[in-house]
Design goal:
Number of helices: 3
Order of helices and strands: HEEHH
Number of domains: 1
Radius of gyration: 18 Å
C-alpha cells in the first residue's frame, strides 16, 4: 500500500521521523533506537558514529555491586 504524498499519514510519519532524528542527534547517550539511555558508561570508539564501553567497564560488570548500581541508577 502506498500513501499519497499529501496525505495526513505521510505528514505525521515525516514529523515523527524528524523528531526521532533530532533526538538522536541532540542527546548523545541514547541506545541505537533512541528509546532509552545507555545503561553502561560509553566512550567514542574507533568509528565516529559508534560508541563503545571500555575494557574496565566490562571487567567491572562482573561484580554484583557494579551491576546492582547500574540497575538502581537506570
Amino acid at each position: 500500500m502506498y500513501l499519497k504524498q499529501d496525505s495526513p499519514c505521510t505528514a505525521s510519519a515525516e514529523i515523527d521521523v524528524k523528531r526521532a532524528v533530532a533526538r538522536l542527534t541532540d542527546e548523545e547517550n541514547l541506545i541505537g533506537d533512541g528509546s532509552q539511555k545507555c545503561a553502561l558508561p560509553t566512550i567514542w570508539g574507533k568509528h565516529s558514529d559508534l560508541k563503545t564501553i571500555t575494557a574496565d567497564t566490562v571487567c567491572n560488570t562482573r561484580t554484583d555491586d557494579i551491576i546492582n548500581y547500574f540497575l538502581d541508577v537506570f
